[in-house]
Structures are given as C-alpha cells and as structure tokens.
C-alpha cells in the first residue's frame, strides 16, 4: 500500500481541476462512500493483522484528512472564480461597522447642547483625589465619600498624592473653573467608574454627562429650563415632564434629583443636580458673592435605556452583536 503515491496523485488532480463539477468527480473517485479508492482502503483495514492496523490506520486517516482539506480549499477557490465569471449574479453587500449607540447618543447630545450655546469639554479618566473629592467639598472624613465606591490606583508616589478612576464627571467642573473665567456654560460627557456590584441598572464602567453654567443671577429656574429643553429635543417629545426633587450632594446647595416622566410612564430618576456650593467656587478661585451657577450629572446609559426601551445596562458592554447591530 503506497499511501504517499495516492496522496500525490489525488492532490495533483485536485489542484488541476478547473470546475466545481470536475472537483465533485475527484471527490467521488477518492472519497465516494461506496467505491472511493481511499474509502475502500479504509474498509480493507479490517482484514489486516492488529500490527498492520496500527501501522496503516493512522497514516490512512491522515491522508484522508489532507485530501479533504485540499478539496475544501480548491472548492472555495473555484466558487469564487465561478461567482466572478457570472456577472449577472446579485452583488454581495459588504457589512460595514457602525458607531456604537453610546457614541451616537453622545453626538446627538452635543448637538442639542451646542444649540443652547454650551461648549463641550473633556477631562481625564484617571483623576487625583483632590479634583474627584476634596475640591468638590468631600473631604476624606466626610461620610458622603461612601456614596462613591472608588477604584484607587497604586502609583509610586501614592503616599503623597492619591489617584483613582474618576467616580463621576464632576471633577471636570473644578478643572474647567481653575482655568476659565465666567460667564460660561459647558457640558462634559465621559467614562466613569465605580467599584460596586452590577445589576440591570448598575455598571462598574458607565458614562455620565456633566453640565455646568456659571454667571450672574443664575438660578434653579435656568437649570429647569435647560434640562427641559434638552429632554424635549432628546426624546423628540414635547410633553416630557421634568420634576426637581430635594436631595443632597456635598458640592451643591440646594441639591436636587431630576425626575422625568414620558407620557403615561412613571416618574424616573435620571440625574443629580443643584446650585454650585459656595465652597466649591472658593476652591476654584471664584468669589461666591459675585457668581452663581448650576450643575447637573446624568447617567448616559440610563437616558439611552429610557429612549430605546433597553431593560439591562449590562448589554452595553456585553459585546453581543445582536444588540449592537440593532442600533
Ligand atoms: C453623581 O455622580 C453626581 N456627580 C451628580 C451631580 C452632578 C450632582 C452635579 C449634582 C451636581 P450620582 O451618584 O447620583 O451623582 O450619579 C448620577 C447619575 O449617574 C445617576 O442618576 C445615574 O443615572 C447614574 N449612575 C450612578 N451610578 C451608576 C451605575 N453604577 N451604573 C450606571 N449609572 C449610574
């Protein structure tokens, strides 16, 4: 039994085939279920001694696999050629990638706030303790630190200065005020991180949208107007109701929770907000007697979930193509 001879003969025939029909014939000749040359050889193994079976069995199997593979490759090649040959066949539409729903939404949000004269500002995802907490009136001893479960980052100088993955986008408020003079109005969308258990509405890695407007005689009424106008455009719905509910954040006074209500659905909490705390203005180098301002922080995924009826926030990071392709 010269296995190499058969392998060479079959491979030469396969490589020389010029049509799919010819290839089919070759497959039958060697691997046909009844009369294929290799099939018959494999069947004849039964009659051999145990020693010969051990010797030829694996070699025959290997050859069969080689030939199968050569047939598959050649079939692919010939199929492509035949597709090309028939120019009347409908074309295959390439499947291009597209922007993720979060990016799409961020672009839409930028457009809406730009229309109200807000600028878009960026901030670092890795923050220092001062900007994420202290300058926002949350000193280390403050019980409110517990509101933000934190991923701390070890650095060679951790003993002197502590770094973390920002727990909210509010530090951007401080960074912007440190280098700019009022009046202004900005938004800052970006990634935020929290060391907490996940469920259908909580992620460890999610997006927030910060807003800050500072000027003379700014009040909660301005906040309510800006927010209402944003929702009206974002949900393309003139009847979105907005409610400010008293709440607490150390960097605002008074602090509010923002609830929205779409048509017949229930009230839903979507953001924290309030009037910038005088202490925060002082940290930033502003005179709180001269300037007032409002700030807000939305959870971006939560807004998207309401808009598109998505029930689980974990889908955003799941890599599930069915989910991604829907939007
Ligand atoms: C804050 O983070 C404040 N910085 C918001 C703020 C800004 C208040 C400016 C006042 C002035 P809070 O922890 O509530 O607040 O988070 C704000 C929003 O982020 C929530 O309303 C929610 O929509 C979203 N959010 C919070 N935690 C998560 C989480 N684990 N997963 C997904 N979204 C979250």
Keywords, separated by commas or semicolons:
BirA Bifunctional Protein, domain 2, about 40% helix, about 325 residues, 7-stranded mixed β-sheet, elongated, binds adenosine-5'-[phenylalaninyl-phosphate], alpha+beta
Instruction: Going across the biggest sheet, name each strand in turn.
Output: 1-5-6-10-9-8-7
What is the molecular shape?
A: elongated
Number of strands: 10
Give the termini distance in whole angstroms: 60 Å
Structural class: alpha+beta
CATH topology of the largest domain: BirA Bifunctional Protein, domain 2
The largest pleated sheet is described as: 7 strands, mixed
Low-confidence stretches: none
Small-molecule binders here are: adenosine-5'-[phenylalaninyl-phosphate]
Describe, in short, the structure shown.
This protein has helices at 3-16, 20-31, 37-44, 50-85, 101-115, 129-132, 171-179, 220-234, 278-284, 300-308, 321-326; strands at residues 119-120, 126-128, 152-153, 163-165, 184-193, 205-215, 241-247, 252-261, 268-276, 292-299. The protein is of the alpha+beta class and 327 residues long.
């Amino acid at each position: 039994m010269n296995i190499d001879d058969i392998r060479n003969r079959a491979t030469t025939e396969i490589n020389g085939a010029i049509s799919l029909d010819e290839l089919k014939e070759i497959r039958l000749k060697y691997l046909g279920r009844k009369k294929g040359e290799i099939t018959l050889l494999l069947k004849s193994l039964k009659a051999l001694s145990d020693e010969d079976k051990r010797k030829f069995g694996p070699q025959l199997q290997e050859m069969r696999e080689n030939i199968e593979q050569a047939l598959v490759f050649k079939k692919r090649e010939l199929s492509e050629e035949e597709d090309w040959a028939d120019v009347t066949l409908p074309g295959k539409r390439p499947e291009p990638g597209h922007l993720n729903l979060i990016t799409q939404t961020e672009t839409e949000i930028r457009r809406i706030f730009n229309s109200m004269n807000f600028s878009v500002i960026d901030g670092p995802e890795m923050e220092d303790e001062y900007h994420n907490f202290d300058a926002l009136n949350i000193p280390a001893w403050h019980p409110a630190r517990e509101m933000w479960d934190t991923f701390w980052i070890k650095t060679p100088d951790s003993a002197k200065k502590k770094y973390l993955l920002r727990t909210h986008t509010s530090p951007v408020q401080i960074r912007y005020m440190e280098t700019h003079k009022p009046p202004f109005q900005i938004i800052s969308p970006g990634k935020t991180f929290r060391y907490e258990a996940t469920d259908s509405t909580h992620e460890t890695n999610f997006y927030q949208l910060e807003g800050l407007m500072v000027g003379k005689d700014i009040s909660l009424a301005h906040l309510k107007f800006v927010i209402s106008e944003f929702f009206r455009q974002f949900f393309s719905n003139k009847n979105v109701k907005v409610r400010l509910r008293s709440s607490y954040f150390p960097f605002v006074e008074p602090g509010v929770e923002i609830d929205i209500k779409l048509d017949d659905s229930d009230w839903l909490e979507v953001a924290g907000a309030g009037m910038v705390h005088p202490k925060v203005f002082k940290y930033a180098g502003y005179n709180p007697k001269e300037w007032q301002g409002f700030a807000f922080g939305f959870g971006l995924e939560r807004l998207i979930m309401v808009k598109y009826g998505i029930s689980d926030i974990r889908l955003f990071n799941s890599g599930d193509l069915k989910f991604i392709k829907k939007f």
